[in-house]
Amino acid sequence: MSKRILSGITPSSEKGLHLGNFLGAVTPHLEFQGQGECFYFIANLHALNNVFDPEQVQNNTLNIFIEYLAFGLDPQKTTFYIQSDIPAIPYLQTILNNAVTVAELQRMHAYKDKLQNDVSQDAINFGLFSYPVLMSADILLFKPDIIPVGEDQTQHVEICRDIARSFNTRYGNVLKVPELYVKKDVARVPGIDGKRKMSKSLGNDIPIFADEQIVKKQIMAITTDPARIHPTDPGNPEKNVAFSFMRLLEYNTIKSDTMPTLEDMEERYRSGTIGDVEIKKTLFTVFMERFSEIRKKKEELKHNMDYIIELRKKGAIRANEIAEKTIEEVKAAVGVL
Ligand code: TYM
Predict the structure, then answer these.
(1) Whose CA is nearest to atom 5 of ligand 1?
(2) Burial, 174: exposed, middle or buried (Cβ in 10 Å; 0-12, 13-18, 19+)?
């Protein structure tokens, strides 16, 4: 039987998807499209714990919906929907609240990180605290086999697996315990600072669909080998994140014939015969080239909102059919049918 694959993305930034999302999530998601029955969705209820402007929530949600389509998500092959169109998700969350302890949620990194940033426990909203329970509902409702995510989401998927096991221990074998899938090389794409993971909230991202000038500004701000003061100083390519991005983007396969190979540039970097500016400009050129068709496709889709709204409705109908079946089973199992 073919495997069922499920994953989601939170529309928490007006800048849309960045290179980390693309490499760590979108690319594996699209690869799975040919291999199984895929369920992908925009997690707009998740965004509510930090985006409080309703118009922004609305716009970000449709924006990312369109971006996913521009990347090549095929709505014929994949059930593609928006989380808030599936009423059984928050219903299941309410039931699953009883299958997890406060102690387990307190161990969550996202919560602990917030506490570390000098935010007092009293100021953290419950939406953030119960985030993994909502995410568990997203997942368990569809009984998927595989959850492909980047490394930052692995703990949430582990909590989901624990919740499913606790529920099943109490009520019988109702929920499926899914497997986690993290693609190794792209599990944690670094930000332009080269230290932390690329993240919209940290501002260290390279947004794929932003104005060319913004993309350029971010690329030109990439951290390079700090020991190198002049372009003639020998440098260590490992310490220049621009090279990592080139490798992840498979630079050699997309560069034009007149451009140097990655190995050439690394060699010249080591010997101090190439400047950081030239490397970054080269990265900018291939970045724009790599995403130019996709950026065009997004512009086209944006002008076809009737089609987008129709897809949204179709996706919701397909997803709700499955979601309603599971929620009935869960309600029967706990005694609230
Ligand atoms: P989100 O929106 O933060 O990220 C979406 C996906 O992109 C991956 N990702 C990265 N991968 C590699 N390197 C990076 N720098 C990087 N930054 C982001 C994330 O790991 C993720 O796969 N809670 C989730 C969305 C969600 C979900 C779900 C996912 C809600 N319900 C159910 C799976 C199943 C989130 O906020 O992802």
Answers:
(1) 9
(2) middle
